[in-house]
Specification:
This protein has about 230 residues and is mainly α. The strands form 2 sheets. The chain has a 3-stranded antiparallel β-sheet, with helices on one face.
Length: about 230
């Protein structure tokens, strides 16, 4: 199923462009993906917790693109449901899903709406899919700048030196950033921080990576903005 191309357009478009076989194959994969999501949620929901293997199983078989397409279609058809978060509703609107009317005026997209499980669990599943997909995406310069800005704000807002030896200020690099960061991203983050004494280091007894500056540093500095290439401006 992972090798079946996702066909985005409705049957009317496929008919006009002699692409009905592509449409049908994709439609069948969408329905199969929907059923796989329902099965995975039922299988991996235990003790009020949805196991991470639920997402892994579905994505392994259908890929992120189709899985997110089916989920976005589901959310669009459940826009009235308060058990789906507003964040996921906004996300669903960023994924184009065309209305696919048949001869009776029915939207055929209803056939791959996840419905055989509690909407709250579907919402959790969507959160996990979005998170896992984000981990596959490389960090952009703006992402690194945003993290640098958070660190600078932490330095500025600290009332007194908070390093273990009280010889400087520390700010933890966010776990969400570290989940995606490569070695080169850590290097770029360090270069964006405007403090001459800054170090990115581990601290004994604490989890994660920390930015540390000396107590004498000017803590009212802002990060160096990333350079934007001309090709990116166009």
């Amino acid at each position: 199923m992972n090798k079946t191309p996702l066909y985005h357009y409705p049957s009317s478009y496929a008919r006009e462009h002699n692409e009905l076989p592509l449409y049908r194959e994709s439609f069948q994969a969408n329905v199969a993906c929907k059923e796989a999501i329902e099965t995975a949620i039922s299988k991996h929901y235990n003790d009020n917790c949805l196991g991470k293997d639920a997402v892994t199983e579905v994505v392994r078989e259908f890929g992120f693109e189709r899985t997110m397409y089916v989920l976005a279609n589901t959310v669009r058809h459940k826009d009235w449901d308060g058990r789906i978060s507003q964040d996921n509703k906004r996300w669903a609107r960023t994924i184009p899903v065309f209305e696919d009317l048949n001869g009776f005026g029915q939207d055929c997209c209803v056939y791959f709406v996840v419905g055989q499980c509690h909407p709250g669990l579907t919402n959790i599943f969507i959160n996990q899919v979005r998170h896992d997909y984000l981990l596959t995406q490389p960090l952009k310069a703006q992402d690194i700048y945003t993290e640098a800005l958070k660190i600078c704000c932490t330095f500025e807002n600290a009332p007194h030196p908070n390093a273990p030896e009280k010889d400087g200020f520390i700010a933890k690099v966010s776990p969400a950033f570290m989940e995606r960061a490569k070695k080169r991203d850590i290097t770029r983050l360090a270069k964006m921080l405007p403090h001459p004494s800054v170090q990115l280091t581990e601290i004994e007894g604490r989890e994660g990576l920390f930015a540390k500056i000396s107590a004498e540093e000017n803590r009212h500095l802002i990060p160096k903005k990333p350079r934007v290439r001309k090709s990116q401006e166009r």
